[in-house]
Amino acid sequence: MTRGGSTAPKRAAGESAAELVTDGMVVGLGTGSTAAEAIRALGERVDNGLAVRGIPTSFQSRELAREYDIPLTSLDETTPDIAIDGADQVADGTLVKGGGAAHAREKIVDTAADRFVVVVDPSKVAETLTHPVPVEMLPDARSTVAAGVRGLGGDPTLRDAERKDGPVVTDNGNLVLDCDFGGITEPDALATGLACLPGVVEHGLFVDCADEIHVGHSDGVRVERP
Ligand SMILES: O=C(CO)[C@H](O)[C@H](O)COP(=O)(O)O
């Protein structure tokens, strides 16, 4: 199951990115409803004879890849030629990711790829990053990381699932703080500050990672190269 529904812009972005995949490639499979469109499009090409192997970034993308009979491999075996993943917000080539709490594995797979292609609809594109930054942390570090985030000027909220008692637990067994920094003017410095907090596993700021951003519209796709 994916958060968010399928829309024509998401589908267009996903299909545009999936078209970049050629025979024999290893593909990083992102998480979320837009990345799911790319996985579906790739699955259809696999059904028509394309030979690829996928490296999933989450339980969700692994299940979807299996549903579409996309053979899987891992970073222990190889690295991706291309990774295709969504984002919660994009400004000037920098991303906020982690709406699905998968940003730790996403960052590992996406940055290991030769080419990282981001797929979004126009609602994700902004002048300045204002989306809260997800921070995955070890459960024991919940209070100290929250204090550290406040020290960096952020307002942390423990992520809670709506239909579940207790906090969201990531695929890695950790917790997530959504940290509101208002407008982020220096993402590089913030990324370093967050990464240095003891107990932080990974944060959702992706600075200097994306090679291409495919923005789907109802009448086509615009490709940006940061
Ligand atoms: O970072 C992510 C998951 O951790 C997703 O890529 C991000 O939340 C975008 O999802 P969607 O395409 O459903 O809006």
Automatic annotation (TrEMBL):
<dbReference type="GO" id="GO:0006014">
    <property type="term" value="P:D-ribose metabolic process"/>
</dbReference>
<dbReference type="GO" id="GO:0009052">
    <property type="term" value="P:pentose-phosphate shunt, non-oxidative branch"/>
</dbReference>
<comment type="similarity">
    <text>Belongs to the ribose 5-phosphate isomerase family.</text>
</comment>
<dbReference type="InterPro" id="IPR020672">
    <property type="entry name" value="Ribose5P_isomerase_typA_subgr"/>
</dbReference>
<dbReference type="GO" id="GO:0005829">
    <property type="term" value="C:cytosol"/>
</dbReference>
<dbReference type="InterPro" id="IPR004788">
    <property type="entry name" value="Ribose5P_isomerase_type_A"/>
</dbReference>
<comment type="function">
    <text>Catalyzes the reversible conversion of ribose-5-phosphate to ribulose 5-phosphate.</text>
</comment>
<feature type="binding site">
    <location>
        <begin position="97"/>
        <end position="100"/>
    </location>
    <ligand>
        <name>substrate</name>
    </ligand>
</feature>
<feature type="binding site">
    <location>
        <begin position="31"/>
        <end position="34"/>
    </location>
    <ligand>
        <name>substrate</name>
    </ligand>
</feature>
<feature type="binding site">
    <location>
        <begin position="85"/>
        <end position="88"/>
    </location>
    <ligand>
        <name>substrate</name>
    </ligand>
</feature>
<dbReference type="InterPro" id="IPR037171">
    <property type="entry name" value="NagB/RpiA_transferase-like"/>
</dbReference>
<protein>
    <recommendedName>
        <fullName>Ribose-5-phosphate isomerase A</fullName>
        <ecNumber>5.3.1.6</ecNumber>
    </recommendedName>
</protein>
<comment type="subunit">
    <text>Homodimer.</text>
</comment>
<feature type="binding site">
    <location>
        <position position="124"/>
    </location>
    <ligand>
        <name>substrate</name>
    </ligand>
</feature>
<feature type="active site" description="Proton acceptor">
    <location>
        <position position="106"/>
    </location>
</feature>
<comment type="subunit">
    <text>Homotetramer.</text>
</comment>
<keyword id="KW-0413">Isomerase</keyword>
<dbReference type="Pfam" id="PF06026">
    <property type="entry name" value="Rib_5-P_isom_A"/>
</dbReference>
<dbReference type="GO" id="GO:0004751">
    <property type="term" value="F:ribose-5-phosphate isomerase activity"/>
</dbReference>
<comment type="pathway">
    <text>Carbohydrate degradation; pentose phosphate pathway; D-ribose 5-phosphate from D-ribulose 5-phosphate (non-oxidative stage): step 1/1.</text>
</comment>
